[in-house]
């Protein structure tokens, strides 16, 4: 083979054109991958104009295009001149083509032919679409094919094939003309001869173009083998082109020609071992299509297996593979293995020999379904992947019923019988993870697939295998949870599993099934009408047998019967009939009951286990004692008895594996504990006049309960009461909750026009509504319209505001007021696509800020405050005889001195619950409209969509199909408020879509979980107070014992994986464009119980609530991201981009100007620095980083650590930055100062307002901040109350001293109570560390701030034992309350100008830190290989890459931050770490001159590209890299 001198230089190290800086001279009209110029080495020169830290090309291109549009659309003259120019150019090109065609048709010398071909290539490269007609292309085709067959001059061959390539670009029909003139055989012949490398490369380019339009012709001409035969001779970039041709052919393959593909299988299987990701993905795509082609031929599948396809595919899908494939390819390979296992015995055996169960286990575990807090959030693509995994597992186990393909299935069974160790290993690996998948709340199809695998595993396992495999209690509990599902298919599989287990291990599972409630679930199936009040969990459990309803449901979701059929694709038709007979489930349940359970459990009392009876007795005892304590609240003996029973209950619950979930729910213990913790105040049934005494009992009980749960003597935390009870409650909640997931199965959403209430276009369908006046309502007019389109996702309050003026007989004065309200609402809505100003969101925000359960605070007098709101119990008040507390009827348990302050807080919370003003005028109130649908009044706080879902009482499936929801016309009646029950619309949050019977248990569980979560967060405070009481009583004199080690429960333990998964599914629904487009339980649970949801789920919910989402932003499964893209970086999907010019020397001034102009606008800001060419993602991220650093300069007097009184910016530059190891917290300023009287304080307020704007804008645009706020500051932002204990987190020494002073105060109080009896001086013996308080010489100024006077005359007042309590109170107030409140309010007001700060309240302080500032831990060594891409000259095994990874592992934290800022523009990673970096961090090879070791790395921050030279040694690389990341900051220029 000859390597010619004109061959273009190797381009493997080049960067793609779309990754360079955008410059006008780089744009070329040709779409070909090779240049028309002959001296191709010049291509390297173009790459010298790369950006050291370049911008996003999209932004630069857009600005150029926008400018061009503005100029070209200026007048009609410019349009006509452009048309004249293009017409003239097209005519000129056509004339030149005719001339070249005429000349080529004649026989000239080779030099003339070369010149003509060169001219033709140039013409084809720059011609317009209309310059080359189809007739002209057809005329060129035979000439070019003839010249391509030329045997004399290789240059003629090269240029003719290049012209063929350009011809395909110039005219789309050219491919057909070329095929007709045998161009493909000619190109294949040249490839097989491979005399010249550049000719062969050009042939590959041409075949790639032709194969897009003519794949069948390429296939029949042998193009696949021609392309693949000598593929190893080419560079990586050319190999990619060759594989693209094969992919094009395979995508449109002919079912009658499998032999053309089979001969290529050995080469393709070999290519799977390569390391280039793009190459391997192309090969995998080809093999996936080939297997689909020969799927029904076992012989061909066996032949494919012999080439090692199974082994290499298993290696690629494994987590340890060195080649990371995209989501779509990975899923396709799993599907390939499933098809191979189904049709080939060789593949079936090979998979078991390769330990496929271990690989699948690792894959499923990586999704981390039980706790998604540490995993990448699953998109629809992940569900497709799990679906393919379950297909594979189902094929790996033979079918239970052998009806077809008996020989093949018997071969599988014979293999399992002859290898007895295979099935146990399969079960050990997969059974636990399959149980986790089902228990996590995944959809019906995936649950069915998992249960199908479990059933097969149980069926084919022997009794001995099952005895060792199944942990009876856990597995029985799992089956009991499955029976709570309402689908026939799932319950049938559960019954089949029970039947099999009872046949094989009856004695083992009989008691277990009874203990876990499986027995009673089966009883409920066969006798749904029987009275099962003894076991209310299964009361009313039945399956819907209405055939018409089943038929309608079957039309909107795919039947599980066919989801895992052999060869069934994931997009199978939905109209196939269900395989299940109507009575199949009922008959099997009756058979199981009659065979195994009827003789054992005819007497229901036999079904009550000993532990259940014991728990019931304890529950009854506790309830009785609590009832007695209501009558005699002063009896200390009664409280001791209550404590004894409570201790027994906690001890029983703390015993490992002794109590089942069924027993816990049925025992009544949960309700008894709720009554104890709240002292019965969560359900007010009887009024009491002794409120103060009742509150005192409540606070004591809560303290006792918390101390009991936090006590732990086991270092391994195996018997930590709080942890154990939390886990039991989570399991109980998962078993009793039945919140529905409502999915709209619309493939494409259509735009609509909403007439009501605001008259605007929507990107989602509207509901068709006919408003009618209620019968008997004579004071209102009929609505004139017939059927109107109503926006489904706005609250009924907005609809009421629209309809009221149109149907009421309105006073002209009131009409003006209402018209003004409507206009304001319309304006607010038009500027807020996410409807953040709508009442439903204000309501949600209000209930977040109001604590739901017992809130523990430590006031200034040392007593506990307890805030006791109600749980949302929706049971009928008529039947229960109890009044349910409303959200606005929250009882504040507090001392009288603090009552007024709390009343003000509650009024502040109420102010944000609704946009509608409170009307004191009774006449106006009576004019308010209420709506009814099908005889039931609608909740005014819900959206119309949510209200309609509330009326769907009969739920056949957990996931409700809603096919006819958008086509039906809804008749809604309206009436005045005087005709309706006010309580129906003023109730607190009501879980309207759930079963009332189950909600009674779920409500108590939620209340108790909230209490335990509160105890866990307040554990340090509570234990410190306990030690303080010990000191006060004189049992210890050591003040150093306040630093106690307290065991805590991880916040992840409070996350309910099932509810998190359900909310994930709901938010993936196309209609989830706002929180109003989801069932009401989503908003209510997130508002009242946000701790139930994982952080990633909260982030998605926050983005929907704060920004809204268009249906176009919901990615289909085929377009999912590789890995996980940070949710922060997807906020701005619909926002227009806007560039802003800033000056590096005046960063804060530029930021203030930017916010002044853009804070209120929904635009995506991109920064461009003055006198620098870079713009886009990198410069913008660096701008936010620089602004964050400027806010941390000394001299601004914003933060506690800033002790420099200097506000001159020039002086401040020389003072450096703050060192804040505990985080930033506002510096206290005296309340006596005002912004008018104090210029320094007014500047501080302005800066806090600007900081709030910057933080909110960064959050809106998806930018990462580098601001180390303290947790205490986040608490203030979230409207949480700070106590003296929080001061320790912002000033450890001050906080510790205040706690010790408080202990002295408590000691004095204790002695005072004793001195009354003994007539002694209470001050005797009260000292602070053996020193009298007076000897400390403390004055009434704030420690550390001598100018901050705590009292009006501090010089004449010193701290002593009598006023030290006042001193503590004043310091606490100055440090965390009045001294910082105005700064915090300024921050929040700035934040509110961009986003509502109320949306942040679903997060904890730690989560808010992650949301705003990304990950604190940047990366660990294990993540580098998984989330870094190597391309354009580098693979994962390249020596420079190996050296780079070792260097990155050796970086300390500061070097990691510098590296990230150099590569991305920000020193922190977004939420999710490297996995969430978008674009993915990519390492490419950089072209250098002769002296490689003298060059420096460069970057493209817009694409997160690090261009790394191939340094000779690791030491040189580290030296150059450290120099670049430390000295290469601060500018964006072309290199």
Structure commentary:
The chain has 1535 residues and is mostly helical. It has 64 helices and 23 strands. A 5-stranded mixed β-sheet has the order 6-5-14-11-12, covered by helices on one side. A 4-stranded mixed β-sheet has the order 20-21-23-22. A hairpin with a 2-residue loop joins strand 18 and strand 19 (1345-1349). Helix 24 runs parallel beside helix 27 (488-504) and helix 55 crosses helix 60 (1405-1413). The protein starts with 42 loop residues before the first helix and ends in an 8-residue tail after the last helix. The N terminus is likely disordered.
Outline the secondary-structure elements:
Layout: H1 43-46, H2 57-72, H3 76-105, H4 110-126, H5 134-148, H6 154-170, H7 174-180, H8 183-193, H9 197-213, H10 215-220, H11 223-228, H12 236-251, H13 259-262, H14 265-271, H15 277-293, H16 298-305, H17 309-317, H18 327-343, H19 345-353, H20 356-367, H21 380-396, H22 406-418, H23 422-439, H24 444-460, H25 463-469, H26 472-482, H27 488-504, H28 506-516, H29 518-526, H30 547-554, H31 584-597, H32 610-631, H33 636-654, H34 661-667, H35 669-678, E1 683-684, H36 691-710, H37 721-736, E2 741-743, E3 752-754, E4 760-762, E5 767-773, E6 788-790, H38 796-807, H39 812-830, H40 839-849, E7 855-857, E8 865-868, H41 877-880, E9 883-884, E10 891-893, H42 899-911, H43 922-926, E11 929-933, E12 936-937, H44 944-951, E13 959-961, E14 969-976, H45 983-986, H46 996-1017, H47 1019-1032, H48 1057-1067, H49 1080-1088, H50 1095-1107, E15 1137-1142, H51 1147-1158, E16 1164-1169, E17 1175-1176, H52 1177-1190, H53 1209-1212, H54 1239-1261, H55 1271-1277, H56 1284-1290, H57 1292-1318, E18 1341-1342, E19 1345-1349, H58 1364-1376, H59 1378-1392, H60 1405-1413, H61 1421-1427, ...
Parallel strand pairs: 2-13, 5-14, 15-16, 20-21, 21-23
Antiparallel strand pairs: 1-9, 3-4, 5-6, 7-8, 8-10, 11-12, 11-14, 16-17, 18-19, 22-23
């Amino acid at each position: 083979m000859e390597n010619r001198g004109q061959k273009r230089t190797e381009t493997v190290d080049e960067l793609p054109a779309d990754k360079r800086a955008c410059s006008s001279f780089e744009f070329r009209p040709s779409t070909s991958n090779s240049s028309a110029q002959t001296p191709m080495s010049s291509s390297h020169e173009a790459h010298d104009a790369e950006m050291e830290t370049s911008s996003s090309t999209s932004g630069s291109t857009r600005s150029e295009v926008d400018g061009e549009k503005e100029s070209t659309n200026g007048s009609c003259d410019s349009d006509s001149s452009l048309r004249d120019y293009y017409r003239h150019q097209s005519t000129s090109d056509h004339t030149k083509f005719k001339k070249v065609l005429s000349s080529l048709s004649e026989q000239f010398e080779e030099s003339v032919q070369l010149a003509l071909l060169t001219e033709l290539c140039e013409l084809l490269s720059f011609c317009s679409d209309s310059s080359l007609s189809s007739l002209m292309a057809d005329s060129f085709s035979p000439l070019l094919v003839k010249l391509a067959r030329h045997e004399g001059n290789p240059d003629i061959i090269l240029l003719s094939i290049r012209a063929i390539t350009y011809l395909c670009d110039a005219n789309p029909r050219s491919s057909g003309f070329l095929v007709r003139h045998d161009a493909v055989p000619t190109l294949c012949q040249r490839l097989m001869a491979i005399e010249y490398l550049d000719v062969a490369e050009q042939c590959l380019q041409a075949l790639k173009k032709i194969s897009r339009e003519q794949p069948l012709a390429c296939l029949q001409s042998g193009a696949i083998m021609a392309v693949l035969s000598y593929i190893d001779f080419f560079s990586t970039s050319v190999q990619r082109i060759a594989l693209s041709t094969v992919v094009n052919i395979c995508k449109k393959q002919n079912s009658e020609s499998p032999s053309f593909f089979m001969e290529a299988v050995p080469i393709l299987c070999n290519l799977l071992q390569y390391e280039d990701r793009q190459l391997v993905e192309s090969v995998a795509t080809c093999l996936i299509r080939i297997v689909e082609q020969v799927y029904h031929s076992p012989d061909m599948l066996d032949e494919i297996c012999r080439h090692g396809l199974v082994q290499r595919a298993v290696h690629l899908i494994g987590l340890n593979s060195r080649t990371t494939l995209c989501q779509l390819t990975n899923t396709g390979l799993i599907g390939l293995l499933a098809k191979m296992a189904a049709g080939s015995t060789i593949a079936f055996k090979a998979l078991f020999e390769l330990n496929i169960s271990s690989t699948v286990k690792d894959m499923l575990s990586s999704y981390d379904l039980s706790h998604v807090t540490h995993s990448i959030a699953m998109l629809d693509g992940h569900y497709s992947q799990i679906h393919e995994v379950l297909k594979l597992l189902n094929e790996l186990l033979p079918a239970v019923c052998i009806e077809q393909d008996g020989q093949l299935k018997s071969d599988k069974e014979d293999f399992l019988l002859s290898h007895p160790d295979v099935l146990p290993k399969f079960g050990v690996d997969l059974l636990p993870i399959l149980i986790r998948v089902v228990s996590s709340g995944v959809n019906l199809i995936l649950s069915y697939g998992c249960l199908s695998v479990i059933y097969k595993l149980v069926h084919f396992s022997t009794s001995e295998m099952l005895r060792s495999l199944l942990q009876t209690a856990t597995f029985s509990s799992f089956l009991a949870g499955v029976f709570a599902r309402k689908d026939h298919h799932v319950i049938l599989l559960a019954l089949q599993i029970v039947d099999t287990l009872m046949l094989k291990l009856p004695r083992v599972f009989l008691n277990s099934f009874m203990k876990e409630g499986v027995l009673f679930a089966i009883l409920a199936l066969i006798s749904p009408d029987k009275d099962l009040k003894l076991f209310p969990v299964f009361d009313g459990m039945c399956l819907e047998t209405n055939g018409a309803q089943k038929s309608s449901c079957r039309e909107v979701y795919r039947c599980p019967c066919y989801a895992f059929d052999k060869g069934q694709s994931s997009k199978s038709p939905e109209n196939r009939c269900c395989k299940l007979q109507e009575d199949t489930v009922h008959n099997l349940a009756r058979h199981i009951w009659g065979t195994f359970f009827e003789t054992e459990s005819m007497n229901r009392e036999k079904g009550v286990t000993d532990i259940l009876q014991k728990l019931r007795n304890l529950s009854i005892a506790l309830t009785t004692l609590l009832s007695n304590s209501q009558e005699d609240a002063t009896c200390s003996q009664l409280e001791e008895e209550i404590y004894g029973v409570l201790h027994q209950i906690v001890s029983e619950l703390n015993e490992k594996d002794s109590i089942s979930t069924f027993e816990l729910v049925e025992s009544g213990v949960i309700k008894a504990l709720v009554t104890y913790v709240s002292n019965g105040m969560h359900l007010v049934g009887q009024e009491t006049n002794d409120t103060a005494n009742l509150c005192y009992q409540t606070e004591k009980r809560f303290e006792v309960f918390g101390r009991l749960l936090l006590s732990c003597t086991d270092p391994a935390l195996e018997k930590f009461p709080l942890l154990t009870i939390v886990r039991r409650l989570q399991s109980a909640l998962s078993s009793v909750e039945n919140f529905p997931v409502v999915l709209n199965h619309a493939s494409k959403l259509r735009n609509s026009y909403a007439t009501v209430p605001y008259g605007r276009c929507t990107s989602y369908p509207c509901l068709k509504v006919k408003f009618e006046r209620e019968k008997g309502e004579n004071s209102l007019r009929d609505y004139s319209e017939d059927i109107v389109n109503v926006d489904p996702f706005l609250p009924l309050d907005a609809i009421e505001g629209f309809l009221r003026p149109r149907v009421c007989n309105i006073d002209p004065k009131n009409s003006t007021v209402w018209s003004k309200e409507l206009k304001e609402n319309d304006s607010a809505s038009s500027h807020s696509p996410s409807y953040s100003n709508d009442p439903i969101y204000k309501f949600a925000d209000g209930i977040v800020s109001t604590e739901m359960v017992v809130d523990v605070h430590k006031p200034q007098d040392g007593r506990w405050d307890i805030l006791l709101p109600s749980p949302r119990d929706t049971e009928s008040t008529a039947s229960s005889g109890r009044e349910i507390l409303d959200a606005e009827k929250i009882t504040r348990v507090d001392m009288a001195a603090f009552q007024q302050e709390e009343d003000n807080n509650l009024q502040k919370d109420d102010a944000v619950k609704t946009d509608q003003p409170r009307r004191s005028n009774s006449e106006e109130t009576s004019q308010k409209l209420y709506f009814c649908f099908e005889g039931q009044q609608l909740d005014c706080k819900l959206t119309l969509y949510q209200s309609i879902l509330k009326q769907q009482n009969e739920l056949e499936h957990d996931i409700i199909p809603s096919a006819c929801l958008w086509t039906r016309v809804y008749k809604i009646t309206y009436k005045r408020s005087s005709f309706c029950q006010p309580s129906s619309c003023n109730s607190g949050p009501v879980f309207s879509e759930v079963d009332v019977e189950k909600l009674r248990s779920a409500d108590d569980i939620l209340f108790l979980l909230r209490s335990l979560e509160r105890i866990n967060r307040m554990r340090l405070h509570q234990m410190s107070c306990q030690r303080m009481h010990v000191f006060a009583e004189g049992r210890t004199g050591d003040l150093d014992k306040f630093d106690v080690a307290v065991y805590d429960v991880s916040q992840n333990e409070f996350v309910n994986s099932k509810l998190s998964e359900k909310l994930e599914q709901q938010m993936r629904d196309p209609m989830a464009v706002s929180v109003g487009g989801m069932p009401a339980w989503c908003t209510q649970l997130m508002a009242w119980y946000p701790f139930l949801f994982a952080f990633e789920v909260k982030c998605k919910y926050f983005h929907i609530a704060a920004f809204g989402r268009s249906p176009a932003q919901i990615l289909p499964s085929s377009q999912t991201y590789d890995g996980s893209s940070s949710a922060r970086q997807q906020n701005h999907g619909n926002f227009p981009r806007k560039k802003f010019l800033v000056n590096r020397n005046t960063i804060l001034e530029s930021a203030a100007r930017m916010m002044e102009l853009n804070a209120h606008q929904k635009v995506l800001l991109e920064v461009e620095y003055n006198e620098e060419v870079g713009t886009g993602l990198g410069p913008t991220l660096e701008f936010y980083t620089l602004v964050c650093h400027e806010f941390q300069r000394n001299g601004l007097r914003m933060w506690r650590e800033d002790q420099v009184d200097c506000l001159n910016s020039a002086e401040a530059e020389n003072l450096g930055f703050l060192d804040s190891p505990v985080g930033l917290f506002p510096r206290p300023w005296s309340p006596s100062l005002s912004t008018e009287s104090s210029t320094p304080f007014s500047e501080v307020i302005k800066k806090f307002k600007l900081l709030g704007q910057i933080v909110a804008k960064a959050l809106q645009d998806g930018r990462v901040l580098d601001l180390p706020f303290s947790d205490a500051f986040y608490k203030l932002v979230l409207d949480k109350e700070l106590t003296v204990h929080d001061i320790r987190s912002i000033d450890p020494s001050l906080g510790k001293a205040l706690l010790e002073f408080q202990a002295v105060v408590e000691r004095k109080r204790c002695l005072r109570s004793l001195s009354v009896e003994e007539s002694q001086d209470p001050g005797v013996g009260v000292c602070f560390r053996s020193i009298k308080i007076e000897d400390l010489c403390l004055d009434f100024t704030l420690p550390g701030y001598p100018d901050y006077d705590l009292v009006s005359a501090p010089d004449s007042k010193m701290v002593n034992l009598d006023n030290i309590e006042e001193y503590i109170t004043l310091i606490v107030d100055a440090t965390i309350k009045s001294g910082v409140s105005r700064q915090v309010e300024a921050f929040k007001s700035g934040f509110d100008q961009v986003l509502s700060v109320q949306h942040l309240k679903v997060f904890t302080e730690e989560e808010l830190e992650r949301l705003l500032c990304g990950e604190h831990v940047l990366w660990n060594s294990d993540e580098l290989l998984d989330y870094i891409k190597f391309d354009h000259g580098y693979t994962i095994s390249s020596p420079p890459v190996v050296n780079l990874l070792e260097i990155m592992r050796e970086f300390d934290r500061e070097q990691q931050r510098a590296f990230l800022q150099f590569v991305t523009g920000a020193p922190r990673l977004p939420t999710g770490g490297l996995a969430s970096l978008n674009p993915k961090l990519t390492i490419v090879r950089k072209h250098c001159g002769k002296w490689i070791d003298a060059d420096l790395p460069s970057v493209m921050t817009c694409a997160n590209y690090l261009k790394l030279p191939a340094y000779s040694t690791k030491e040189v690389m580290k030296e150059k890299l450290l120099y670049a990341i430390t000295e290469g900051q601060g500018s964006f220029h072309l290199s």
